[in-house]
Every structure is written in C-alpha cells, then in structure tokens.
Amino acid sequence: MKKKVYIKTFGCQMNENDSEKMLWLLSEEYEPVKAPSEADLILINTCSVREKPEYKVHSEVGRFKHLKKRKPHLILGITGCVAQQKGEALVKRFPFVDIVLGTQEFYRIKEAIKLVKKGKGPVVWTELKDSFNLPFVPPVRKLCSGVKAYVTIMQGCDNFCTYCIVPYVRGREVSRPPEEILKEVETLASYGIKEVMLLGQNVNSYGKKEKGFPSFAELLKMVAQIEGIWRVRFTTSHPKDLSDELIEVIAKEPKVCKHLHLPLQAGSNRVLKRMNRKYTLEDYLQKVEKLKKLCPEIALTTDIIVGFPGETEKDFEETLKALEKIRYHEIFSFKYSDRPFTAAQKFEDKVPEEEKEKRLDAVHKVQERITQEIYQSYVGKEVEVLVEGRSKKDPSMFMGRTSTNVIVNFIAALEEELIGTLVKVRVTSAGKHSLKGEFEEVIKS
Ligand code: 5AD
Ligand code: SF4
Q1: Which ligand has its closest atom nearest to the C-alpha of 261?
Q2: Are the C-beta atoms of residues 288 and 316 closer than 8 Å to each other?
C-alpha cells in the first residue's frame, strides 16, 4: 500500500504547479490525501509575497506540531518562497520540521526524504542558481481535472519593483529552452489536455536574456500550433514588456485566449515611479488602447496595491480613475505590506493601516460595480465554454470558462462526457464573480 502525502499550497499558480510536480515526483511511493491527520508526509508549499500568507504559514506549521508528537514517523516539509527566504531559521524556530526546500530545490524532494529517513535530517537546501532543471510532470488529474494544465516557461524576476520580495526568493529571470516547453505541451496534448497556461513571474520577458531563444510572442504562436491544444493562456505579464508583436499575436491567434492579466499596481505616475514599475499610466493606457483596438473582445484583469508608502489621497484617486477608465473584468487588490529585503520597506512615509483599509474598501466598491456591469453585458449572449468539471457549489451544474476567463456554471441534461469539450452556452444571469447559463450545443469534442 502506498504511503500518504498531504500537501497544502499557498500563493500563485507557480506554487500550484510546483506542488503538482512534487506530487508527481512522489507518486511511486505516496498518494495524496485530503486530511493531514492521515498523512505520513506533510508538505507546506509557501508564499511570501505579502505579510498575510507568510503569517499563515507560521500558524499552519504550528498546527502540525501535535500531529508530529502523536506520529513520530511523520515527515514535515516546508517548500516554496518562505522556505527560500528563511532557510535555516525555519528549523531553528520549528525544530520538528524535517525538510526545508527553496524555490529551485523542490524537485529534490525524494532525495531529502531519503536523508531524513536515514536520520540525517533536518535537510535545508535553498541554493538559487542561474539555470533550473525542471522535471517534466504529466498532469496529475486530481489537481488539474484533466482538461487544463500549467507549463512553467520561465521563472525569477529582474525588475525589482520596490515593494516586491519575488526577485529575492525566486532569483533572476531564467527561461526554459523552447524545445523543452514544446515537448511538454505536446505530451500534455497526448494526455488529452485541451488548455495550457504558460507560467512565469514575468512571462512576456521570456527568452530576452538567452541567446537564440524565440521571443514570448513567437513562443506563444508555436505553442498554439500544437495539435490537440485548443486554448493557450499565460500569466503574469509586465506592462513594460507588452510588445506590439505580442498584442498582435493575442489579437490574431484564435487559440490564444482573449484575456490578459496586466498588473497596473497604481494609477499615479508618482507612485509608479517610486514603485520602480518603469512605465507611466499613459504608457499603460496606450498599450491597452492598442490591444482593445485590435482585439475588442479582450478582457483585462489587474493587480492593485493601495497605501504604498507616500501614496496621498490624490494619488489614490488616480487609481480609482484608472479603474473607471480601463474597466477591468476583475481585479486583485492588496494593502501594501512591508516585505524583507525590499527598498520600500525602508521608505519612511508609511500610510496608516486604517487609511489602507479605507482605500481598499473604496477600490472594492468601484470595481464591484464595474465587474457587475461587465458581467450583466454577457446576459442573453451565447458564449463558448471549455468545460472543466462540475460546479463546486452545485454539482448538478457543469463549470467552465469563456476565452475571456469568466467562470460559467450551466445546466445540461448530459453525462460526464461533456467535461473536456467546448460548448455553446446561453448566459441567463450574472453572479458576483461568475455567470449562469443554459447549455445549447457541443462545438468541439
Ligand atoms: N504589498 C502588497 N501587495 C504586494 N504585491 C506584491 N508585493 C506586495 C507587497 N509588498 C502584490 C502585487 C503583485 C501581486 C502578486 O501581489 O500587486 O502583482
Ligand atoms: Fe515582483 Fe515587480 Fe517582478 Fe512582478 S515584476 S515579480 S511585482 S519585482
């Protein structure tokens, strides 16, 4: 019988993908379970991008202390960004932790377990290299539903936005060779995967540092040509690297989804400059304008930080104005939080917590209205939905997404075969963050 592994993943899609990879690497010996109390191995894949998720990791690790007492053979590992950031300090603070693997070391998980079993723990590996060696991981069906899969194409970041810890915990930008990426996508297609999401901290600067690599736009076209793949998505893009060439590929290549996540962070040029974002609001608007002109159906989403040090009421209003102007489908908004190693941590003019709270509320209010207006505009229309599975809330319904990345739940008197097909759905109503509809017909299967 296989041993049991419980894995808890915090943070971004890159972490989700790394967790999938670890599960696959362990799959000969371990099978995943949903309850930590059943596990022989517990892995916490951590995020340190903001204070809150980092804090959550501490409470999570503490929670497993008593389990470890009851079950001495239980192995406890911490991976990901907090592991990278804290390294040895984690085992000092939590002496019952057996394994700490950084962002480029997680694929050595089996080796680490072996050492712990031999009594050679704790194992702490946190080296950051200029290249990375990513194992190919076939889709772990339990995690990706067998319809879509992540493909990491680059990692790390060279931008050093003044609030951001990522360059310190994910290292410098490194791109994977295009042949490897294409082979991986072809293999995924042969497993029946229909949609791939290309991942990187900064996907659109793919290949800029490596000699002879295609540009991101060229890579996107190559991936879109792979037979069996119907949809291609990618995240995250930096506005400064959104080239005309890329805008054209998004607009013209039918398999490239009509959705772009383009973090704006703030609407004030003064704040953007202090954030070291390397664009002005006008640069950003110009690119968005170009994209909307060539691709009117494009859906935009973004990240916003409120209360960056020195952000005045007037600066903040520029952010609200930008939201009204750009009209994002959805936004992810955060209160600024100090992160170790970053430049902004040392800025003196911090915004008080209550003020950040107030600004976050204001952002939510404005955006909720815009999202509602946009979602309402889908009602009565027919949309193409790639069916991912059953709706979590109501398993009598199917769930999928439009090319614009809007979640659609719909009723269909059909069997499971619908999962993995592209269907036409008539939208009947709009919820807060999803649409409801009725199945019309299968377009592609
Ligand atoms: N404080 C608040 N939000 C942050 N983000 C990154 N660093 C911080 C920070 N120190 C946000 C940015 C980024 C998203 C992933 O997290 O908006 O795009
Ligand atoms: Fe962080 Fe900026 Fe790099 Fe994004 S581009 S990962 S926000 S440093």
Answers
A1: 1
A2: no
